[in-house]
Design brief:
Length: 237
Amino acid sequence: MAAIRLAAAAFAGIVALSIAPAAIAGSDAADPLTAQIAERLAPRLTDGLQLKAITLACKPPPGATLKEVAPGVPRLSSPAFTVELSTPGGTLICSAQAQVERRALVAARDLGAGQEVSGNDFRPGWVDAFASPPDLVNAIDSNVTLIAPIRQGDPVSASMLRKTVMVRQGEMVSITVTNGGVSLRTHLKAEGDGAIGEYVTMENPTSGRLITAQVTGKDSAHIELSNDQQVNDDAKP
């Protein structure tokens, strides 16, 4: 769950998002001066961010013209910046706020902690680029569980998700054991919890011997033995 490649697609329980280059959203500029500020500020945004609105903390006097936007700031990393205006009385430095958004997966409805979720529970949306968590995810598969509640419209981050436990400690697990061209099925007891793709120690209930298996699904796992191992000795009950 790393760099965000956001493309609006949903298939096989997976949702992904794709972000366009930095842009100014619509034509929200209230006046030509604000439009000029937006035009100069947009190139300072990281690719994929969208400039939604600009708010000036001062009221430009009549005849004011734009001199500089965010001087000394090559990339905007927070909503606050300054604007320099040329006025009949000299240079006016004005504080400003930028409303910047980014694409993200947001909850399609209210979701509770402990709930298993899939891509169908989320949709593409725009969220505050500077107030959102840095670990927003770009895809949701069908084997994850929320560890915290999330409200409709809020973005989902990696820290809010964990893989769904498919094998639980103490339960019997259906094991497929392969050794070259030889394959058999048996049942072993899990010594710990595990999600799909994780490795869990299994106990042979007859011999008490331990062996590691990779979780493949609900109450199922796989063991692949090397050629010098014996299937019957290590896994068969």
